[in-house]
């Protein structure tokens, strides 16, 4: 009886299971017939995501090897990978959307830093706004020069008045010192035909006026005042850069270059800036923030439509030329202090005669000055 009663029960169970399986299969088939694209798209998306991450990880490992990047543990490496991936996607998207005039970005040595981390590590600090009002157009020695008397383009690098690109390093907002140093190097070579790198470290240690604070921001005009009052500035070889502020050790150092003073370029006037740069390298303040500046590679910043910046003056560079590129875009040639492996050998071209702004692109015409020798 047990066997007899068990057999029908067992057969009934199999029948129910078979019915359920058949119903599930029929439901799955009906869903696939109803929306087969959904299954295909979902599968492809999962596959693409897995494959994309794999490709991106390979790209990250190659980048890390090229830049000698190592991390303290696997968690930090995983976090840096996510930052790199975000930056790489931004670079790829930006480059894909750009036209022939647009600049190009790249996953450079800053590609594993968020823009906020980059701004902190490379010491962006507000430049002083204590910019004097120009009185009756005086104090600008090139004010009576006509545009017809200056060249349509000039490159002080080619003319031998620019030293090699320096690297201010992480956690030190010393761009102001390098900008002032480059301007002094330029006018010294133009006057003496002797090109020498002067000491940015001396400016950090010794030019400590109200607005100059070593790695915590500074003004080029105060640096020029210090050099004038000190009777000159030592060479970089004699007073090397240390990436931190120290005690002033200028006493007994021989001056490698000297100046008689400095002048301001009339603000918000790119024509006046051009007249000055036509005669010598000029210190310039601008907005150097933003991911485009951070990851810049080549071309003219501002020639496309996606390069945004403000007039928040938080970085200092040196204008060492101007010109027009093959697409007819007028540009300024700026020397930076983030090393020669950033942008085009450490230099960046920024659009000139910006019709959209009287301040110049990124505020570059707002606060410029140059030494007088």
Automatic annotation (TrEMBL):
Membrane as UniProt keyword: yes
Domain Peptidase C1A papain C-terminal: 150-372
Keywords attached to this entry: Disulfide bond, Membrane, Transmembrane, Transmembrane helix, Zymogen
InterPro entries in UniProt: Papain-like_cys_pep_sf, Pept_his_AS, Peptidase_C1A, Peptidase_C1A_C, Peptidase_C1A_papain-like, Prot_inhib_I29
Domain Cathepsin propeptide inhibitor: 60-118
One GO molecular-function entry: cysteine-type peptidase activity
Cross-referenced SMART domains: Inhibitor_I29, Pept_C1
UniProt xrefs under PROSITE patterns: THIOL_PROTEASE_HIS (PS00639)
BP term (GO), one: proteolysis
Pfam family for this entry, one: Inhibitor_I29
Transmembrane segments: 20-43
Keyword Zinc: no
Assigned protein family: Belongs to the peptidase C1 family.
Protein name: Uncharacterized protein
Originating organism: Oryza brachyantha
Lineage: Eukaryota, Viridiplantae, Streptophyta, Embryophyta, Tracheophyta
């Amino acid at each position: 009886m047990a066997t007899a009663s068990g057999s029908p029960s067992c057969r009934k169970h199999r029948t129910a299971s078979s019915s359920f399986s058949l119903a599930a299969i029929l439901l799955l088939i009906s869903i696939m017939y109803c929306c087969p694209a959904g299954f295909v798209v979902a599968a492809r998306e999962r596959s693409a995501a897995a494959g994309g991450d794999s490709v991106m990880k390979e790209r990250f490992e190659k980048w890390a090897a090229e830049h000698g990047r190592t991390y303290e543990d696997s968690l930090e490496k995983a976090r840096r990978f996510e930052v790199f991936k975000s930056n790489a996607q931004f670079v790829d998207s930006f480059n894909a959307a750009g036209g022939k005039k647009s600049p190009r970005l790249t996953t450079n040595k800053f590609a594993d830093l968020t823009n906020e981390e980059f701004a902190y590590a490379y010491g962006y600090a507000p430049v002083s706004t204590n910019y004097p009002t120009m009185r009756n157009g005086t104090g600008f020695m090139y004010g009576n020069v006509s545009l017809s008397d200056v060249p349509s383009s000039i490159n002080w690098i080619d003319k031998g008045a620019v030293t090699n690109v320096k690297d201010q390093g992480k956690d030190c907002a010393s761009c102001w010192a390098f900008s002032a140093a480059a301007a002094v190097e330029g006018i010294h070579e133009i006057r003496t035909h002797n090109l020498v790198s002067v000491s940015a470290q001396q400016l950090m240690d010794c030019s400590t006026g109200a607005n100059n604070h070593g790695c915590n921001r500074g003004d080029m005009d105060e640096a020029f005042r210090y050099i004038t009052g000190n009777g000159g500035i030592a060479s970089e070889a004699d007073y090397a850069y240390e990436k931190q502020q120290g005690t002033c050790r200028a006493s007994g150092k021989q001056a490698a270059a000297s100046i008689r003073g400095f002048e301001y370029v009339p603000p918000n006037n790119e024509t006046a800036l051009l007249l000055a740069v036509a005669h010598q390298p000029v210190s310039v303040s601008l907005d150097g923030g933003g991911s485009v500046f951070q990851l810049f590679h080549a071309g003219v910043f501002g020639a496309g439509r996606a390069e945004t910046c403000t007039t928040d003056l938080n970085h200092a560079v040196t204008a060492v030329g101007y010109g027009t590129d093959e697409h007819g875009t007028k540009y300024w040639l700026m020397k930076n202090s983030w090393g020669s492996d950033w942008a085009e050998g450490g230099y960046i071209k920024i659009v000139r005669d910006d019709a959209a702004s009287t301040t110049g692109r990124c505020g570059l015409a707002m606060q410029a000055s140059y030494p007088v020798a």
